[in-house]
Amino acid sequence: MRNLIYCELLKLKRSKIIPISITGVLSTPLLMLLEAVQTHYDNPEFVFTLSDVYNSSILYTMLLTNMMVYVAIASFLFSREYTESTLKTILPIPVSRTKLLFGKFCSLLLWIVTLNIVTWAGIYVVCGIYHAVFTLKEYSLLVAIEWFPKFLLGGILMFLTTSPFVFAAGITKGFVAPMIGSAVIVMGSAALANQEWGALYPWTATFFLVQGKIESTGYPTALSLGIIFMLSAVGFFMTYHHFKREDLK
Questions:
Q1: What is the pTM of this model?
Q2: How many structural domains comprise the chain?
Q3: Dihedral of the alpha carbons of 227, 54, 60, 167, in degrees to the nearest 10
């Protein structure tokens, strides 16, 4: 299994998806820097901290930019065997399709968590640039470390909500359907980000869980977690069922 995961990571390494995805997730730190600079010039008396920046960045990371990047990566991992016609080479090898799928999902999880860490580190760096020029209150590595577990948890929860897009990539054998779906999901997330109903919407519920906002919506945490895990399980099962029935063509 370790070799399968290593093989999938090598495929990522040899493609352009790695620099593209890193560039994509670094858009969040850049957006936060631009927002901080604009706030400084529009309202110089307003004081905000590094913790405030991280708190705001969670919204961009989990509901907007990073989510679309992760759907693109998931689509790439699971559709490239069709688009590059390598499925004929992979399926006959003496490794079960279950292990092949598991290796791909593990690689996806590792890369999503890694990119969330890149986002977390990028925010600390750009805030350091802001701090050097304008001074940012409570700017320290200890504050950044306090937010690190939230970014790790966010990456894991976002991975769970990508399984339906993986299924869409397998069915359509391409990027178009998953990316259109992710755009619709992102619009829904933006609409429900400040609504109580967001606790019942899987992609917004992940954000509420990381931010500790579930209880304020009036819905139990167990319900939101159950919805997320149910969505994930259905996506995994449908992907597995489709891949197990896939024939060589």
A1: 0.89
A2: 1
A3: -40
